[in-house]
Specification:
Elements: E1 9-10, E2 16-17, H1 20-25, H2 29-38, H3 40-47, H4 51-58, H5 66-74, H6 86-100, H7 106-110
Antiparallel strand pairs: 1-2
Helix pairs in contact: 2-6
Length: about 120
């Protein structure tokens, strides 16, 4: 059986988090929502054997309150969920998935808002 490579989650400030404590310290709402929506957050938790968190995440239903549930599960405090448009982030994630069908170039994906 091949050994899985543990990948870090990259936050908006460019910091790559490898532990739950680092994730809490460098938490970025938009990035964490994107990772949640595309499944990378669950894979990241699975690779690190955070089984109790995985069980909680699997209970979340995709609604506007999913951000609040994610923050509750990860024990993230002081997140202003009122200024976050979950639908807009989901649209951005869908756009990234469509563009990835044609290219994986980092500079294109980093500037996804400018891609037609």
């Amino acid at each position: 059986m091949a050994k899985r490579i543990k990948f870090p989650l990259e936050m908006k400030d460019g910091i790559k988090v490898r532990t739950l404590e680092e994730l809490r310290l460098h938490f970025d709402v938009e990035k964490v929502l994107l990772y949640y929506m595309n499944g990378k957050l669950l894979s990241w938790l699975l690779d690190r054997h955070y089984d109790e968190y995985i069980a909680e995440f699997k209970k979340i239903k995709r609604t506007d309150n999913s951000l609040l549930e994610i923050c509750r599960i990860l024990d993230i405090k002081d997140v202003d969920a009122g200024n976050i448009d979950v639908r807009k982030i989901e649209q951005k994630n869908n756009k990234i998935l469509k563009v990835k069908q044609y290219t994986d170039r980092k500079e294109v994906l980093d500037n996804i808002d400018l891609v037609a």
